[in-house]
Amino acid sequence: xxxxxxxxxxxxxxxxxxxxxxxxxxxxxxxxxxxxxxxxxxxxxxxxxxxxxxxxxxxxxxxxxxxxxxxxxxxxxxxxxxxxxxxxxxxxxxxxxxxxxxxxxxxxxxxxxxxxxxxxxxxxxxxxxxxxxxxxxxxxxxxxxxxxxxxxxxxxxxxxxxxxxxxxxxxxxxxxxxxxxxxxxxxxxxxxxxxxxxxxxxxxxxxxxxxxxxxxxxxxxxxxxxxxxxxxxxxxxxxxxxxxxxxxxxxxxxxxxxxxxxxxxxxxxxxxxxxxxxxxxxxxxxxxxxxxxxxxxxxxxxxxxxxxxxxxxxxxxxxxxxxxxxxxxxxxxxxxxxxxxxxxxxxxxxxxxxxxxxxxxxxxxxxxxxxxxxxxxxxxxxxxxxxxxxxxxxxxxxxxxxxxxxxxxxxxxxxxxxxxxxxxxxxxxxxxxxxxxxxxxxxxxxxxxxxxxxxxxxxxxxxxxxxxxxxxxxxxxxxxxxxxxxxxxxxxxxxxxxxxxxxxxxxxxxxxxxxxxxxxxxxxxxxxxxxxxxxxxxxxxxxxxxxxxxxxxxxxxxxxxxxxxxxxxxxxx
Length: 573
Description:
By secondary structure, the protein is an alpha+beta fold. It contains 15 helices and 20 strands.
């Protein structure tokens, strides 16, 4: 296809022709025309080259030579002339034929009808080509927009209509940012191209640069905040753009292609998030701190202000709050204070909705707007700028259930994409919680085992020391005093007493850490005698009772006297 007649040469219309000489006869030339089917030929005469046709020789005697046929020389042109100049020359010379010369050589001729035929053929091909290009343009699956030097839309493909939901008749002549519904077009009354954001817009910069340098720009990522549907919601969309310069009605224009890669970029961000969380959880010991770090990472993708883990074990009437994470600027204590009457809450009654529902069936519970939520606490949360909440099950077993509660200050903050992201994160969250749960159980078992071992070791040590002492004891009196001496190492007491019956004698020992009143001494005496009588069915004669009182090593005479027995126990030996 010829882009311009000025750029096209005459090679395509140049024709080779037979040549006759000046001494050839007219009869011989006409025979050659008839036998070989020549339409025209060239003759070289002293006065120049002449293009002859059969009708040029009509009426000329057959025996006459061509030099005597009174033929007029044809005008000549250079081989390097443009097609546009050639047409002008043909019009000026009023000739149907021009002879082409190249440094006195004869490449051929150009005829007016041949030039017209060539141009008609090229015009036909150009039209067919334009129709093909138009069909490709309109049917391209990739959105294509043609913009002029002012970034105003000249033409759009059908893919743009389907992708963005616009119609050509409504957008032709508008600036490209208005066509794409960029939210910043509303920042300035003059529209797209005048807001502070527009000065940094990569789309605008790519179009202007392409027009300026006249070279394409490839594979540039551009993020555009788009207002869709009712023009109230803003969603960021990422496009991969290419810009190519063209001429449109003798002025500069740009073909702009847009490939929406928003989903791909979101998927890449999700993969990075999951990788980051896996990395965090793999490098740390099980515990709540890992979950907190995961929430910090999750906040980059979901507009969170608050996150909580709730656990419930079979048989419990309370749901435990195991973890509370929030952004620094959000204060949860007023909400808890108004709902529960205190600023810190570790347990929630099972009867409080939606706790009971969540404990009975596995489901995702989404409250998109707390202001119209179904529970009483919803309006309290909304009062303190909580707008949407989601309860998401992480572990759901008969004996053990874990739910994740996420809250946002935005209405309808949680989308289907967020739920899909939580589905992907659920296995790693659940595994982390399970490992933390088992880790705590193991720590408690270890602590209990260690405590029991220490207690048993201590008991054995006391028994060992006591057995050594008993080996040298010759009387029951010494034995009971020895027992009382070691008893304080096992039991923390204020007063200890022992009762010993040998024959008709009764030995009664009292060991005190603090001063005793007479009343308390009588209470102790009465309690031990009653216990002895119940055990042995032997009545105690008080005249045979020998009471001995002595002080413990840690006796404190300044301590308040014991006036009443708060608690006591007796052990038969």
